[in-house]
Design brief:
single chain; alpha+beta; D-amino Acid Aminotransferase, Chain A, domain 1; D-amino Acid Aminotransferase, Chain A, domain 2; 9 helices; globular; binds N-(5'-phosphopyridoxyl)-D-alanine
Length: 286
């Protein structure tokens, strides 16, 4: 029986109780993180926890723990649930209070929920690549906040999935922003292109790792928006996220990217990413 953390306590999955008045239900009023675990070890956890606190601050939400406390909850869940490979899901809502749009008065305590999920690296797809569908980005103008309000992303991912695609490539008036739950990258003439960090995208932690890798490998990067038309003409494309890592894109809509095979630079970045995973380093399996 998997252990959950909810509202200050570690609880067995079938004993978890959640209030109908939790503002997460009513309004998606909260923030969340997904942190990868490889071989029982958290990956880039400091960065994820930092972003959790940053997202909370942007919506004036006080997390009822400090950073070390949040880390401690994640570690205990990994140990007690004997998680080897997978991730931690963590969310904080603005607490339980009768439904009213404005913040509860008086203030109620925020509720942190966390649990573990098992999952392996998507190695086959990382070799073969996936297809993505262009979908208009109808989300709000604070995509920099990792908010529980994900309806725009949910609808985009569903549209992609219903069409047989793995992910949606979102665009505003033809300019690519990011994926429904990923950051988008293109490579043209040896230069890696991706949307700059603005209110229109989430600053992905995997995106940060990839930019660091490019720096280390002297691969030039331009953090500059590109259009869908430009995407169709890229030499290589990939997207990044905690669970997808560095995922090659073989096709955008019906346009095959280059020869449809994983590109050489994408592979180089994937290989460098793998060296940063504790498990692979530890066992010398890179
Ligand atoms: N999604 N952009 C959006 C809109 C996202 O939701 C995510 C993460 C990313 C990539 O961020 P990171 O590299 O830090 O995972 C970009 C998570 C995994 C999710 O919602 O499940």
């Amino acid at each position: 029986m998997s252990l959950y953390f909810i509202d200050g306590q570690f609880t067995k999955q079938d004993e978890v109780k959640i209030s109908i008045d939790d503002r997460g239900y009513y309004f998606g009023d909260g923030v969340y993180e997904v942190i990868k675990v490889y071989d029982g070890e958290l990956f880039t956890a400091d960065e994820h926890i930092e972003r959790l606190f940053a997202s909370a601050e942007k919506i004036q939400l006080t997390i009822p723990y400090d950073r070390a406390g949040v880390m401690g909850i994640a570690r205990r869940l990994i140990v007690d649930n004997e998680l080897v490979n997978g991730h931690i899901y963590m969310q904080v809502t603005r607490g339980a209070s009768p439904r009213q749009h404005h913040f509860p008065t008086p203030t109620v305590p925020a509720i942190l929920t966390a649990y573990t999920m098992t999952g392996e690296r998507p190695l086959a797809a990382m070799e073969k690549g996936v297809a993505v569908k262009s979908v208009e980005d109808i989300r709000w103008l604070r995509c920099d906040i990792k908010s529980l309000n994900l309806l725009g992303s949910v609808l985009a991912k569903e549209e992609a999935k219903a069409g047989g695609y793995e992910e949606a490539i979102l665009h505003r008036d033809g300019t690519v922003t990011e994926g429904s739950s990923t950051n988008m990258f293109g490579i043209k003439d040896g230069i890696v292109r991706t949307h700059p960090v603005t209110n229109l995208i989430l600053e992905g932690i995997t995106r940060q790792v990839v930019l660091q890798i490019c720096d280390e490998l002297n691969i030039p990067v331009e953090e500059k928006p590109f259009t869908l038309e430009e995407a169709f003409e890229m030499d290589e494309m990939f997207y990044t996220s905690t669970t997808a890592e560095v995922m090659p894109i073989a096709r955008v809509d019906d346009k095959i990217i280059d020869d449809g095979l994983r590109g050489a630079l994408t592979k180089k970045i994937q290989d460098a990413f793998a060296t940063k995973i504790p498990l692979l380093n530890k066992e010398g399996r890179v």
